[in-house]
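Postdoc handover notes: sequence design on the structure in folder B. Input tokens:
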């Protein structure tokens, strides 16, 4: 009984985590003699609370020796494009500004994240990517908007 409860709690906690990304591809931007090159990574993730929406994220990734062992700090450069890929259905209620995707971009204290808003007046989902740090974030950001077609979405959050 105790192990079943533990398993249930673990599964519920995993369901609350931001989405995981799938790498689509990369391109090198700076050649490094030692270690991996600097590059732009393109990733895709599905919105965990809205079926039918996939976001594509491009972000800078530092290479070299420090980048190869995970010590480099990636820049705050990122771009996002979200698209309807099926019927849109709100699976769970969500709050505006809720984190949909998150990735550490340095060993300590810097995170790139995607948050979601629902513009109820226009019935669109707005996705914002930005980078923050405990002491100082970055004003660099990008947004993408996905309209919710009439008759889709179900109960609105």
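Designed sequence:
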């Amino acid at each position: 009984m105790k192990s079943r409860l533990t398993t249930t709690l673990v599964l519920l906690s995993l369901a609350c985590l931001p989405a995981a990304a799938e790498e689509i591809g990369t391109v090198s931007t700076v050649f490094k003699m030692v270690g991996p090159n600097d590059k732009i990574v393109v990733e895709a993730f599905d919105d965990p609370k809205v079926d039918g929406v996939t976001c594509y994220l491009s972000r800078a990734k530092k290479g070299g020796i420090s980048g190869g062992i995970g010590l480099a700090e990636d820049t705050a450069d990122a771009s996002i494009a979200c698209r309807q890929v099926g019927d849109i259905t709100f699976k769970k209620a969500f709050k505006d500004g809720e984190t949909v995707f998150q990735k550490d971009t340095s060993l300590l204290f810097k995170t790139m994240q995607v948050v979601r808003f629902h513009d109820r007046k226009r019935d669109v989902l707005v996705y914002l990517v930005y980078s923050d740090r405990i002491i100082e974030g970055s004003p660099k950001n990008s947004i993408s908007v996905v309209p919710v077609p009439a008759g889709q979405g179900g109960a609105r959050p």
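Context for whoever picks this up: The chain has two helices and eight strands. Don't rerun without checking with the PI first.
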